[in-house]
Amino acid sequence: MDRSGDPMKGPPADRRGSISFSRPLGDHCVHMGIELEGLSSKAIPGQFFLIRERGVLDPLLGRPLALVASEGNVLEFLFRVSGRGTARLATLPPGAALELRGPCGNGFPEPVRNELVLVAGTLGIAPFIGIPSFCSERVRITAVLGVPGKGWEPFVEWCSERFTGIRINSDDGSIGRHGDPVEDTLLIVGQRHEVWGCGPEAMLRGLGRVHEKGCDRLLVSLEKRMACGTGGCLGCSIRTGSGSKRVCVDGPVFEWRQVFGGSHEI
Ligand SMILES: Cc1cc2nc3c(=O)[nH]c(=O)nc-3n(C[C@H](O)[C@H](O)[C@H](O)COP(=O)(O)OP(=O)(O)OC[C@H]3O[C@@H](n4cnc5c(N)ncnc54)[C@H](O)[C@@H]3O)c2cc1C
Ligand code: FES
Q1: Is 113 helix (H, G, I), strand (E, B) or coil?
Q2: Do 17 and 74 share a domain, yes or no?
Q3: Residue 254 CB–ligand 1 contact under 6 Å
Q4: Domain that holds residue 25
Q5: Are the beta carbons of 190 and 214 closer than 8 angstroms?
């Protein structure tokens, strides 16, 4: 993924594709490449695609997955098998026919600060994988990852190969530091840092504590259930300090304060 040329503008397109590779990363995750028919697709980190099996009515809705990388016509994704849709996707062989809608959403901007900290809860790392090649060289990147622990070693190893500076935290203490990624982030951030987070809502809410460390630039990428991905169904609406927003078109990347800063429930 590079930032040359314009990111995709206008409404996301519906495209046909087929699985070019599908590799398990331990028991929980899959790294998948999908070859698009015809057009290649320009997208920026933080944007996502709705992905579904072509010609299958159940499940009907595409599942949103963040774009991890792209090379020519092949788009790469990283996903956790969490329910019916992703379990089905994980069993499909190379060559299986898919439909993709995207790229959707706003994606991440160029960081304002030179020190960027990417905080991820498990698969929350997916939209961050392309960040090192997307940011200009002035930006020093540290990734802070949290995983449950045992069984997640192949996933952690895969992620570690993609960041020169990565701090690993696990709930059971079996991989890296024993603890959660928010506590770890608080050890390293200050005024000169910019922090981006992606993961469970409780983690993102807790990340607001970086403000107490003087860090006032905090963005989060939200995950909500989605149907259309184009802003039409309102299924992904959230309440924010500046009114109702649709995560699929106004996000998924928001300023932390806009989402969690007020007394409203999102
Ligand atoms: C913009 C965006 C980008 C995403 N990128 C990735 C990614 O790169 N990799 C990845 O593994 N996952 C990602 N997700 C989450 C992923 O879309 C869900 O895990 C997936 O849709 C679950 O579908 P399912 O049919 O397997 O599970 P379901 O049977 O639908 O649900 C299984 C469990 O997941 C929860 N869930 C379902 N949909 C979502 C959702 N959209 N967000 C949060 N929880 C959900 C359900 O409440 C349930 O507990 C992303 C979500 C969004 C909105
Ligand atoms: S998924 Fe339909 S408006 Fe966002």
Answers
A1: coil
A2: yes
A3: no
A4: 13-104
A5: yes
| Single-letter amino acid code for the residue at 80 | R
Query: Which ligand 2 atom is the nearest neighbour of the CA of 231?
Result: 3
Q: How far is the CA of 85 from the centre of ligand 1 (A)?
A: 9
CB 169 within 8 A of CB 187: no
**Residue 237: nearest ligand to its CA?**
2
CA of 43 to the centre of ligand 2 (A): 19
Ligand 2 mean position to 95 CA, how many Å? 29
DSSP code of 242?
A: T
User: What is residue 171's DSSP assignment?
Assistant: S
- What are the percentages of helix, strand and coil residues in the chain, rounded to 5? 20, 35, 45
Closest by CA position to 225, among listed 83, 123, 72: 83
One domain for residues 130 and 191: yes
CATH number for the domain harbouring residue 125: 3.40.50.80
Q: Which ligand is nearest to the CA of 232?
A: 2
Do both 91 and 59 map to the same domain? yes
Residue pLDDT tens, the chain, 266 long: 544 444 444 568 899 999 999 999 998 899 999 999 976 667 899 999 999 999 988 888 999 999 999 988 999 999 999 999 999 999 999 999 999 999 999 999 999 999 999 999 999 999 999 999 999 899 999 999 999 999 999 999 999 999 999 999 999 999 999 999 999 999 999 999 999 999 999 999 999 999 999 999 999 999 999 999 999 999 999 999 999 999 999 999 999 999 998 766 66
Report d(CA 13, CA 194) in Å as an integer.
32
Our answer on whether the CB atom of 125 is closer than 6 Å to any ligand 1 atom is no
Q: From the CB of 48, is ligand 1 less than 6 Å away?
A: yes
